Amino acid sequence: MQPSVFPSNRCGESWLIRYGLAVLLVSLATGIRIALRPIIPTGFPFITFFLAVLLAAWRGGLGPGLLASVLSTLAADFLLIEPLYEFHLATGYYWVSLGVFVVESVCIALVANRMKRIEGTLRESETRFKTLADSAPILMWINDREGARFVNHAYLEFLGVDAQVDVAKYDWTAFVHPEDRHRYLQAYLSAFEKHAWFDERFRFRRHDGLYRWMRSVGRPRFAASGELLGYVGATYDITEIAEAQERLERSSMELEHAVNAKTAELQQSQERLRTMSTELNLAEQRERKRLATELHDHLQQMLIVGKLTIGQGKQIASGVPACEALLKKVDEILSDALTYSRTLVAELCPPVLRDHGLVDSLTWLAENMKTKHAQTVTVHLPDDQGLHLPEDQRVLLFQSVRELLINSAKHAGTGQATLTMDKQVDQLRITVKDEGKGFDCTLAARTGTSGGEISSKFGLYSIQERMRALGGSCEIQSALEKGTTASLVLPLTERAALQGVSISDSPFISRRSQADTVHSDPSMIRVLLVDDHAMIRQGLRTMLEAYQDIHVTGEAANGEEAITLAHRLQPDVVLMDIHMPQLNGIEATAILQRDFPHMAIVGLSVNADRGNRDAMIQAGAATLLTKEAPVEELYQVIHSAVKSRPEQKSTTL
Description:
This protein is of the alpha/beta class. 55% of the residues lie in helices and 17% in strands.
């Protein structure tokens, strides 16, 4: 550190030297003034003395300056004011002039001493700044318009430059990496234009030729007039930080790739689980359907045959009270068994879902909720014309709606719900809404529960996964005491296009009538039996042929055979089962009614609910009876259907 100028002089030099200097300066000033007497009038004696006082105070301090002031006054009084001495003494101007001189010389001493102290303070501050700057590990610099005015030791050491080099003429931009130079200079220019700080990262070449990443922070300096004076700032090495950041970014990218890979694997696992869940659900539904089919095709048909046999037994046992009572009891047991089996079939796989589409099945479901769960469901469903979903979509949607309604019945606490279907061009939305207790959606989505209880067999989470497997979604909105709204959204694609046999394009339609099918006895009612169970056909034939005016002209095991036999035999009445292979009874009825409007058709089914009845009547049947209906009722219906049929138009062959 360089020594401080003013404080060191006062402490390092003796008082004799400092005061002796004051005497020497006054003596020198007196001699100069005497030498200048021929040139400068004696009325101006103070010029050289003022200079002596100033130098004495500047060099020695306030004491020597005051001494120089006193000596200058005495010298001026006794040596230099000869022509005006008496005038001044007489008028009093002398003492005024002498007093003014004393005041002026003292002021000069004080000002000089103060300026010396300020200079010393500035030099000491500058020395301290340079010491601190040279001790700092960062690169500090001050520029002016001509270049670098100051750089610290770290800057010179970084560049490998000797401290004696004129840094003002040193081209520091040559050390900036060529790729970063333009950007760095632009930062300087931008700071100048905006009168703001600049903060830039760049690569700077060290003395060993290696480039280091640096961060430079600085600000332009301006004069009061707005003129640029230069820049002041600091630059520090951030290579380790940059390399650490680069490693962090590289690690982050590697981690991101690993996370993406694991996420992809997880998504694939979720997709496989979702597919397995869907297959499991469909397997369950297929097993339900298989069991329902077994119950319908075997157990129920055997029970019906039993009831038909009981009906025959009643006719034989007529007049024997004990036999009639026993047969009646057996008939009631069989009826109860049929009712139970029909209920079980509906629980396993509702026939309406299999035979009449989604809309009719949801209508049936709403009615069933009233019977089984005491819940009133208000239904807003559109016409299902044009809505033909694949079986898996139809089954899963029905299952999901049933679980939502059961969940509402268990937890809403209102006993009421609204079921709405909205069919758009590209999507189908089914909404179940109630105004009940509601629940925490976050908890339900995480645990598959509502209110801490299992919402249904599979839970809300299962419903959501089921809809995702179909390419759709399950949207749930709920809050405590504000009800629940659950919407099933299914996109409609080509997969949901019309499937099955087109009635108008059936290859079994023939418009020819056979003349040899007309029976000789016009009072005889000719009946065609259509059922895929031989036992049922046999039981019906036995019961009907007990009537003198009924003649069974043929039997068919499916809809296709029924159409073929109807064209050849042209019966008066067709007893048509609904559920049959190849072509069901509803489709076969529509075809026969189109070709033979005069032909009466009576539907038969184990499940004669409203959906089946409406479908058969819409297809052209007179009515729909259950297969276990009393034979007397069937006989009356046959006669009523024959009487109400339109007259047959004559056909020219």
